[in-house]
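Quick sanity check, Cardiolipin synthase:
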Amino acid sequence: MAILMFISRVISLFLMVVLIFYKRKEPALLMAWLLLLVFLPPIGCVMYLLFERTPLPRKAGLFLNDIKDERRGRQASVSLNDKITSLVHFNENYNSSRLYLYQDFMYFADGKSKYQQLFKDIEGAKQSIHLQYFIIREDEVGRQLVQLLTEKAAQGVEVRLIFDSAGCFGTRLKYFASLMEAGGQVYQFHPPTFRLIGLNYNYRNHRKIVVIDGRIGYLGGMNIGNEYMSLDPKFSPWRDAHLRLVGDAVWELQHRFLKDYYMVCDHQEDERYIKDHLNHYFASPLSTTLCPMQIVSDGPDTTTDDIKLTFVKMIQSAVHTIQIQTPYFIPDSLFLETLKIAAYSGVKVEVMIPTIADHHYVYRTTTSFIKELREANIDVYFYKGFLHSKIIIIDEELCTIGSTNIDQRSFKINYEINAFIYDKTLTRQAVHQFQLDLENCLLVDDSYEQNKSAWIRFEEKVYRLVSMLL
C-alpha cells in the first residue's frame, strides 16, 4: 500500500507539472485539478486518466474538406441586419462555417411528429440513408427504425448507421444484426479503448444527424427511444426540439456525417466509393425559400470551443430578450458572466430547466446556479416535466437549435452540432413554443433557496466543484 501511495504521489507530481507548464487551463479549473492531485493523489490520477480533456487527432477523410469547398451552394445577395451580419462573419472566420441561404424547414417540439416524418422520409429513400445518433433504444421506436432501415437496405439503398457506444450502453450490437445481414453498415463510435493518457471512451459523439438521398437532413436534440414520445412515465411529459431541412444546409450535414464516418470505418476503398457517388451524397438543392443559417460543429478533435463561443457572441448581441431552454445548466465562467452582463444591461433573460432529473449529480449541479442567476435578475423557470430542448433565442429574431447542452461536457468534450438560424419565421416558431412551455412552468422565487436543506446545499457545492473536472 505504501508503495502504491508513493507511486501515485510521483505520478501526481508529474501531472501537476504538466498542468501548470504545458496545459493552458482556466485558473479555477487548474486549481481544482491541483487540489485533487495534492490531497487525493490516487483518485486524482484515475480521474485525470478518465476525464482530462486531451485534443484528439483528426482522422482520415480530409479530402472531404476539398469537396465542401467545391460544393459551396448557391450564392445570392441577402440583406441581414448588423447584429446577424456580425455573427455570420464570426462563424465564417472563426468556425469556417459558411452561410447557407435556401432551405425549407420543419420544426418539431415532440418525438411523435418527428418520428412520423423521419420514418416517412426513410421509406421514400432511393439511394442513401445516413444516420448518426447518441442513443438508440431497444424499444418500440428503436425496433421500428431498425426494421425500416433493414427493408431499405434489402432494396439496395445504401444504409450507414453510427451509434455512440456510451449513449447506447444498453443496446447490443446484435440488435442491428438483421440490418447488417441486409447489407447495412453499422458502426460504434469510440467503443471502450485505452490510450496512453485519457480514454477515447470519455469523448462521446452527442450529434444527432440524418441525411437521406443527400437532400433531406435532420439535426437537433432527439435520439431514438420511447421516452422522446413521452412513453416513459418517469420522464413525461418530454419536451424537445428538432429540425428537418431540405436545401443547401443539408450539404453541411452530409459533410459532417461523412467525416464522422471516417473516424469509425476501416475501409480504405470507401474513399474512392464516396468520390464516385458525390452526386447523390451532395444532391442539387430543391428549396427556393430564403432561410439563412449556419451549421457549426465542434469536438475534442478541435482546439477551439466553436459552439460555446458562438453562444457567447449571440448573447453579447442581445438588446431586448434572451430565452434559453436546456436540460442541464452547468456553464463555464465565460458563458455565465456574459449572461449576467446582459441581464445587468437591461436585457430580459429567461432560463428554463426541467423539474424532473435524469441524473441526480447533474441536476444538483444545475440547481447550484439558480441563486446566482436570480441575483442577476435572471428569471429561472422549472418546466413541469423533462425538458430536453437545447435552444437559445435572441431578441425573437435569431436562434440556435442543436445537440449542445449548456454544460462543460458539451462545451469541451462531446462532439456536437448546432444550427444557427437567422430567419424570423423559424425563430418565431421557437418563440411560440417557449411561450407555450411557460404555461407549464413554475417561476423560481425566494422560497426556493430558503427551503433548501443543508444536505442539498452540501451536494450542490461538492458537485459543482467536481463538474469542473468531468
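Posting the structure with no commentary besides this: The mean pLDDT is 87.
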